[in-house]
Amino acid sequence: MKFITTTLTFMLALGLMSQNLFAKSSIISPIPPPQEKILDIDEHSCSDGCLKKLYTNGYIFSFLAKFNTNTTDKKVLHYFSQALAQLSGIEPQDPSNGEHFRIALLIPKQMVGRYSVSVANTILAYLIARNIDFDFQVFDSIDESKANLESTYLRIIQSNANFVIAMLGPTGVQNLIDYDNLIYPTYIPTINKERLSQDIIDKLPENLYFGGISYKEQFQALQPLMQDMPLIEYADDSQIGSYLTTLFTELDGNIIHQRSLSNQEASQFNKTLQKETSYFPGAALILNTSAPKTGLILSQIELNEDTPRIYLSTQINFSPIILQLASPKARENLFVASSIGTIDTNLMEYASLLNTNLRYDWVSYATSLGVEFGLRTIAKDSKTLFSESMRDRQIQYQNRIWTTKEANFILAK
To answer: Which domain of life does the UniProt lineage start with (predicted)?
Structure first.
């Protein structure tokens, strides 16, 4: 298994966006599969109408030979997918009979950076843990521009996938919706529907699904812990920090102080600590800062005589970094909301072998949920490793409150 892990990581790092990975159970083959090519021996072109006629009349080979990769006709693209399935003898609606589960990962590598390898490894970990045949391809859209997303999704259609996982932000989701040609179930693990504007939600395609966690629901889970206390918020100027500040200010609470901290201010927090302590007595400190900043803040507040009554945070601080940077005493009254649920032991082991941390990385956790959901869209009787459900095209999470004890997070009583 060590050889498999090393090989996968090396292959993904060097050529992640251009290769096919095929597997049966835990055996991953580095040998690319044979390819079929259909030659067009007729020099005459064929319009979309002509292609539709060829397909409906049963001329599958002629249809494939004449198919134009630049077409945007939804019916023609659907026929193309079906023709490829017929040619390869695949029954796409029933992979439980021993056929491959064909999954595509659409990823704008230029924007997501380090997630390129970790997300792909997460998908592989789930597929291997399930002991099923699979065909996994990665498609790099470079960025989230409309033109690049459209051309990349067209390549996915031509690959005849069953299911698509797309690592996109709000702009990418908007551009993908505008494409209006999502013929496969497509899952976005990085966004919760609550972050989309109502005009976007109103025009969502029926086969577009979301797996992002709800920070709004996490704040609601934390709200009973901050009841009747004066509230302090520390945040930062990152995109997620700004979003969390917006959600926090919408809460019905007694906010007495808010501050945005840069990296330098967090590392030298003790210089302004004396001024901050006037707000601390009996207060709940909401930490909408990244885990490294939170660890630095907690470790410096610990040295002060006056401290907040309680520290509260969302998923961004459910991280081992907190355990490393802040002493057990500094995080004694820290409570963090997390959407990550119970994880199957085998899946956890495979993910660990592929350097993926499902326990703390919610994007990887949401991605695993997406793979399972995709498998169940075409094999409804397949067993599940997760308890979360899909409702109104959004994964529903159960938020739990955690605190820390020594070098671990433990469920709060």
So the answer is: Bacteria
